[in-house]
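Why predict the complex rather than its parts? Because the way molecules touch one another can change local conformation, and only a joint prediction can capture that. The input here totals 262 residues.
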Amino acid sequence: MAVGRRIALVTGASSGIGAEFARQLAGRGYDLILHGRRLDRLAALAAELSAAHGIAAEPLAADLAVEAGIAAVAARISALPELGLLVNNAGFGIGRGFAEADVAGQAEMLAVHMLAPMRLSHAALPAMLARRAGGIINVASLAAFMALPGNVNYCATKAYLLTFSQALAGEVGRRGVKVQALCPGFTVTEFHARPAQGGVGPDRAPRWLWGSVSAVVAASLRAFDRGQVVCVPGAVNRMIAAVARTGLVNRLAPGVLYRLES
Ligand SMILES: NC(=O)c1ccc[n+]([C@@H]2O[C@H](COP(=O)([O-])OP(=O)(O)OC[C@H]3O[C@@H](n4cnc5c(N)ncnc54)[C@H](OP(=O)(O)O)[C@@H]3O)[C@@H](O)[C@H]2O)c1
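Output of the joint prediction:
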């Protein structure tokens, strides 16, 4: 990665929302570090985007559920000449209730959704603050506004990301660094091809609830440009978030979800 070029690092860039961030940022002229665990996918995307946009792109394989993986990505960030944008996007779901699901998998979720974004942000900020430039996008979820049975740690970790982003934006915004919590609703990605891990097949939710990765990422980058701290893409999702903020969804969810299951 060359000095003087804008560089973005995207975690979870091997599919879905992360791969789309890589595509749209390449279109904006960023050099890219593409993180994930599936190195073959990352290498193919890096080659495609370098050829299409004349940018530099390199894959970076690391498991963010383990300390060594988080440390490796943090070290790569610290070694960069300058990082323009960090996108903390890697994430996954768990398709079972808290008491039934394997506790090790839930601890991994806490590492990927909370510990990794916190550590990577901490690694990225000193150089951004010194330059009074750059920013961080944390991919949370509409679930951050809710407390849903069956998604206990998913909602809790995404709520952490939302609050973390809002508080951090308050700290570093006046020092020239932008922070955004991106809170998408249902988005068509590989996440939902894995019902056993909490994915919702498109047939299990009405068509009008679904958004595309291109619309989600375009909304995020537009909001980032104007310094908006919380981005909920789509009018329907903004309405859902507004209702959820009243607490109504949390009061109704246990009855509704358990009735649907029985
Ligand atoms: N799709 C939705 O409806 C939706 C809605 C709201 C929020 N989100 C959030 O959006 C983000 C992206 O999800 P997506 O929908 O694009 O799903 P996806 O297509 O399954 O992509 C998930 C990405 O996260 C990476 N990842 C997962 N576990 C990892 C680990 N332990 N270490 C490193 N990387 C890991 C995956 O890479 P590898 O498999 O190569 O490691 C993959 O690139 C997630 O944080 C998700 O919670 C999604």
